[in-house]
Structures
1.
Amino acid sequence: MKAIRFAAPLPTYLLTLAAGRLSPRFYVGPLACTRYGEVPDPALPAPDWVSVRTRLGGICGSDLAIVTLGASPSTSPFSSFPFVLGHENVGEIVELGADVRGFDRGQRVVVNPLLSCVPRAIRPACAACAAGRPSRCAHFTDGALAPGMFIGTTRGVGGSWGECFTAHASQLVAVPESLSDEEAVLVEPLACAVHAVRSHLPPAGERALVVGAGSIGLLTVAALRALAPASPVTVLARHVFQGEHAERLGAERVVIARGRYVDALAEAAGARLLRPVLGERIAVGGFDRTVVCTGDSRAMEDALRMTRAGGTIVLLGNAVHLKGVDWAPLWLKELTLAGSLAYGAHAHGGATRHAFEEAVALIAGGRAAVRPLVTHTFPLADHARALATAADRGGAHSIKVAFRPGPPAPGPV
Ligand SMILES: [Zn+2]
Ligand SMILES: [Zn+2]
């Protein structure tokens, strides 16, 4: 099959690093870490697995970080090379292992790509998995598969930047007929937002700030509006077109991150600004809860500045090395800083529900109008244009860019 795969033996890594600094188009090519071409179809690892033909494979910020060699070295033990990229997905089942029940050939599914204890055939499951927190699994490097946290960073199972990939039956989530492929490919990133919001749900009346209005920021706005409707949401966006999406998704206020945006944020939060001897002003009062949805230093500084004393900052963006951040507000205001990764099960309304299933239900029920967020799709062979479009949000007005690996498929689109 055709696929985009990643491997990083040291000479290739160094060559890609040097060439990529000259031009981003050199990050993908026949001599680079990321290559497009023919790879073997992934075999079913066990009889309780299926093979899925990819209909759409989304491009995540974390994928761009892998391609441009910007991912944190801390994540490397939780992957195995070479791997086919792509964890955001929608596809249809083309092969069922003998032990798979409840799914049919041809059925449309989204795959929860987390490779925790159950897909790894580890019994009994670790304490985190048993408690419905598979993102904290203790066994991402153990069991029947090569090391890896996700389909899309793990050798041997394929990924959604390929024509097909494999998945354990426990990872399959049926896609209702009413969902388009574009909506379905957003289930995985929406599930990340649902997990972050459910884990730190603002009580009624608390004011939330979302820093960053790329796909994950906008999906966080959608999740906050659906799950915490009595909490007004302010969004700090880099681009005007992102702000328009945020307003459409229910943000009460959008602030564009230029000029005197700190004054606008303070006004939205009902905060006072104090001027230090040097540098940007700091707020007294502020937002109760801030979700940081980008990985840059300024986003973290804005969050530290604009969150009220005793408030909570949730880090959902892929922050790695934050240069020059003044962390003093963290202790000065007794803030809580919490990380959020992937998805898990959450108890609410008398039941426990997985974030993946809740994400499907929010879209299917019309409570998260996410379809316009898929702004571009490309065939795999057009990878250079796809990755450039995903990276150049301001120029291309891109939110979510996805690969369409196969020929146009019949069925709902
Ligand atoms: Zn992702
Ligand atoms: Zn586990």
2.
Amino acid sequence: MTFHHRHLCLLTTLFTVGCFLIVTADAGYCGLQDNYYQTSCPSAEAVINAVAVANFTSDAFALRFASGLLRMSFHDCHVDGCDASVLLDGPGSEKTAEINHFLTGYEIIDKAKEELEAICPGVVSCADIIAYAARDAIVALNGTRFEVQGGRKDGRVSIASRAESQLPNGDMGVDELTANFALKGLSRDQMVVLSGAHTSAAGHCPGLVKRLYDFRGTGQTDPSMPQAFADQLKFQCPKATFNESVFITMDTFTPFFDTGYYRSLQNHEGVFTSDQSLYDDERTQPLVNTLTDNNLFQAKFGEAMRAMGSIGVNLDGEIRKDCRKVNTVPY
Ligand code: HEM
């Protein structure tokens, strides 16, 4: 990182918690680096990859864990920065928030941490484990590999209400989504690109209640939904008897990490309002159309993940010994 970049980081730190988003083509974001553990724990990325892949491939259903880890990286970074606050146990911590109800993959992070502590104790942060595992998840789902920077430290604070207030929800339109991402230093285009994570995603019925049965307080279904698509979602999510184990695939083409999500939006088959609005809004529709080119999507997604992975990075925190608890003694 050049002096100029470091200076910008420090300046921004005065206004935000930790190190905010500074985009540089040649250097890391705010002290983060590629191959960060190459001397301190050379097998770190390989160990995380092996643990993640073992979990993803145990059966076809286990690929859902891959998608879960990708979402976890977003829910970590978007709430007070990428500091593994989402992993902390305890009353009122982020993982108890309603918006994190369906988050999965905690055990995979625990397992990777356990293996890393056995070979390089106190070296690899939980926040970095999430970031590497999310990348490995994308690759497991047929996405293109990208370099992930390391160097994040783990935070000591995790508050459920902060997850509820900082994360976007599925009922938002482009204005709200753009404003939400701007607060994290991410552009509208990056928001559209990162939403492509929904190409291998599944939603659940509770998040669809309003759109299917009481759109904007009308007591009706969102009128912009094609009838057959609305009928199919209502069949999966009958009003009276929501089943939490029902998965609603957010890409109607394939379960893989590809352009199917954007093609679903072009077919007006975006599951949540936040998805469909990206195509329905004339400001974001051109980019949705462009992202149906798979090579472009994969390249843009990797770049955007690197940007997301640098939100509010804390270089002064700790390396947790157990990802679910803050350290009781300095480590
Ligand atoms: C643009 C704003 C976003 C909104 C409003 C949003 C909203 C949602 C909603 C409502 C769900 C379904 C939750 C459920 O019912 O279980 C979901 C799932 C998911 N989201 Fe997002 N999301 C956004 C951005 C992102 C980003 C940036 C990523 C990652 C880079 C991401 C990754 C995922 C994944 C992978 C799932 C599926 C998780 C699974 O299958 O277990 N989302 N999102």
